[in-house]
Design goal:
The complex is a heterodimer. By secondary structure, chain A is α/β, with parallel strands linked by helices. Helix content of chain A is 44%, strand content 11%. Chain A has 12 helices and 8 strands. The chains are: A alpha/beta, B alpha/beta.
Chain lengths: 324, 347
């Protein structure tokens, strides 16, 4: 039960983040074909609860690394919709002044350190950040998020091995939608259980339904407690349903490689609806939730307008920030 | 000012030791770094002095270990990641070319990457196709990386210290044969990255050399000097950023230029240099720039074929003679570098 692990304030804060991530991506869908936002978007609708839940369990000093499907993680850690849309519109007010776009978003000053559009490439960076924590005697955990496709990359296994060898405090979080672009796990994997293999490396492990924010938090807390008691790495595997196409704002069920969920399944697969239901069951007034939704939508609309009106980076910016 | 005679390998070792003393954030790691051979002696004494926290070996995981170095660098540490052969860095090219070179730009200048990637270029005694590459053209091709090739013990020391203090990623390539070279090293001397050095002054022709080719070029210059032909030797030292001025000033003076690059010529650094020199010295050149480099084949193992693979002082002499319209110098009685004198393997 939600009430057993979350206070009312926490629940409302989490709901706000869920709605923020969802509404931002819905706004992208609405605006995308105006052709002003010239950046490939890998939308995470359906998976918002995973980064939001995991980072809810960790202090703000926790460094995080992510993938090209990074919007929810960015927004969970920063709530910076101005910078977010500025970057997506390629404008000067984006955190990378438009040079990163959606696929390489980062905000190092908020410990959202780096993301990448090459699968698996930020996984080893987490080793370095965790090594630096150990080097300096910090107790902080480092998180790294990746999709289930990344698990087939060599760098992933090299990183698992080194994290285990050094007992680094890294939370490896697999955002498992069962698809590497359009290819199902069963067509790619010569093994049955990722968790069992990783357990052989002396990892802490946890898994659950990533569409259920409460479960994400419960599992993450369990594992981070173990990591604090006796330092070492952990793997969390959260399944979720990717509602949209691999890249772009549309559905692609007509392509035939997967089934569209039945209407009765949507409530279970949609983390926003599911959490909302829980909040209502716990006695929260629908009005309170409506107020949050309105406030978030206004914030997003303001940021989109700001981004649309913001200037592009000046020509000299082309040459800035290659080397120091 | 105190000058000490030492080998190139000791220059490397002391540069790391002095930087580690000066800055607790500097650490050295890589495959075989703390084993009994110590990367041909270039990491000798570091683990004893600074402990396993700051000097350690790794699993055979070049890709992830390079990403680890990047992650540590953007977290404020200053890693020196060592590869016993440049060829093994190919396993880390994804991190080097997709991540290390890009991350500062992609973060809008927020991330700083003070990272040194040291690697040894092998040669001789059967190093062959997979232990002999220099690849500086590969690295220098990509914006976001600095690339350095020291030739002397002084440069091994001073350039490594500069590389460690640089806030950018630096690829630092060391020719294995240079490890045995001895020279005066002044610890106070600073060699900034991005500056070439004139190894020998002359008026007749400029040889622009990289890495080991400077040794060959100086030898060629010594031989030609006996018949009154004075060759200028310019050691590029820094592949990127490139010190065009020192090179261009030399060629403007001599009007003749051979680029002697320690690499294949096709699409290589020698082509870049030839282009720069032709463009900037067009009116001063008396002949087109000539390029010397590896034969366009994988490096063979057997010695007679390997001898044909590498450019040498003899190639420099013969090319210079043609450019200057000189009769061939009698090379009987001249002794050229032979690695058998110092290096008999196996590794």
């Amino acid at each position: 039960m939600m009430q057993d692990i979350l206070t009312k304030e926490e629940s409302l804060g989490l709901y706000r983040k869920l709605v923020l991530a969802r509404f931002c991506e819905e706004k992208i869908c609405q605006e995308y074909f105006k052709d002003e936002m010239k950046t490939p978007v890998h939308l995470g609708i359906g998976g918002e609860g995973i980064p939001i839940g995991v980072h809810h369990c960790l202090p703000p000093s926790t460094k995080a690394f992510g993938t090209y499907r990074n919007h929810s993680l960015y927004l969970a850690m920063t709530e910076d919709t101005d910078g977010f849309f500025g970057e997506l519109y390629g404008k000067r007010n984006g955190p990378a002044k438009g040079k990163a776009g959606s696929m390489h978003l980062s905000l190092p000053e908020k410990n959202f350190v780096a993301t990448s559009a090459v699968v698996g490439t930020t996984v080893p960076l987490a080793l370095g950040a965790a090594f630096a924590n150990t080097y300096r005697g910090s107790d902080d955990v480092v998180t790294v998020f990746f999709g289930d496709g990344a698990v087939e990359e060599g760098a992933f296994w090299e990183s698992i091995n080194f994290a285990a060898l050094r007992r680094l405090k890294i939370l490896f979080v697999c955002e498992d939608n069962g698809l590497a672009i359009h290819t199902h796990a069963r067509q790619r994997r010569g093994f049955k259980s990722l968790l069992n293999i990783v357990e052989a490396f002396d990892f802490y492990k946890g898994s659950g339904d990533g569409s259920d924010l409460t479960e994400v938090i419960r599992v993450t807390r369990q594992v981070t407690r173990q990591m604090q008691d006796k330092p070492g790495p952990a793997l969390l595997n959260f399944t979720y349903h990717r509602f949209l196409e691999h890249v772009g704002p549309r559905e692609d069920f007509d392509a035939g490689y997967r089934q569209k969920p039945e209407p009765e399944d949507i409530k279970r697969l949609d983390p926003v609806l599911r959490f909302e239901e829980e909040l209502k069951e716990s006695g929260l007034q629908a009005q309170a939730l409506e107020a949050i939704r309105c406030e978030v939508q206004e914030k997003i609309d303001r940021s989109v307008k700001t981004a649309q009106q913001a200037p592009f980076p000046p020509p000299e910016e082309l040459f800035a920030d290659v080397l120091i | 000012m105190t000058q000490t005679m030492m080998s190139y390998r000791d220059g490397l070792m002391l540069a790391a030791a002095h930087e580690m003393e000066a800055d607790p954030d500097v650490f050295v790691f890589g495959l075989d770094v703390p084993d009994h051979k110590r990367i041909f002696g270039s990491t000798r004494g570091l683990v004893e002095k600074f402990g396993e926290k700051r000097c350690f070996g790794t699993p055979l995981s070049e890709d992830a270990m390079t990403g680890m170095a990047l992650g540590a660098a953007i977290s404020g540490l200053r890693p020196i990641h060592v590869h016993i052969r440049v060829d093994f860095m190919l396993l880390a090219m994804n991190q080097i070319v997709n991540m290390i070179s890009n991350l500062r730009y992609m973060s809008g200048g927020k991330l700083k990457i003070p990272l040194v990637l040291r690697a040894v270029i092998g040669r001789g005694w059967g190093q062959s196709a997979q232990h002999s590459k220099s690849l500086h053209s590969f690295f220098a091709h990509v914006p976001g990386l600095k690339v350095v090739m020291p030739t002397t013990p002084q440069d091994a020391y001073s350039l490594l210290r500069s590389a460690v203090r640089d806030d950018n990623p630096v690829v630092f390539l060391e020719h294995r044969w240079l490890y045995d070279i001895e020279g005066e090293v002044d610890f106070e001397k600073i060699a900034p990255l991005g500056k070439a050095a004139v190894r020998k002054e002359g008026k007749a022709l400029t040889v622009v050399g990289t890495s080991w080719m400077n040794v060959e070029a100086v030898k060629a210059a010594e031989i030609l000097a006996k018949r009154g032909v004075d060759i200028e030797v310019v050691d590029v030292r820094s592949i990127y950023p490139l010190d065009e001025e020192t090179i261009v000033n030399s060629v403007k003076k001599t009007g003749h230029c051979i680029v002697a690059d320690y690499d294949w010529t096709y699409c290589g650094f020698s082509a870049e240099l030839a282009s720069v020199i032709h463009h900037r010295c067009f009116a001063d050149l008396k002949k087109p720039v000539e390029r010397l480099g590896f034969a366009p084949v994988p490096c063979p193992t057997t010695r007679p074929l390997e001898n044909l693979f590498y450019p040498s002082a003899v190639h420099i002499i013969r090319t210079a003679e043609k450019m200057l319209g000189l009769s061939p110098t009698d090379l009987d009685g001249e002794s050229f570098y032979s690695y058998e004198n110092k290096f008999k393997g196996p590794f």
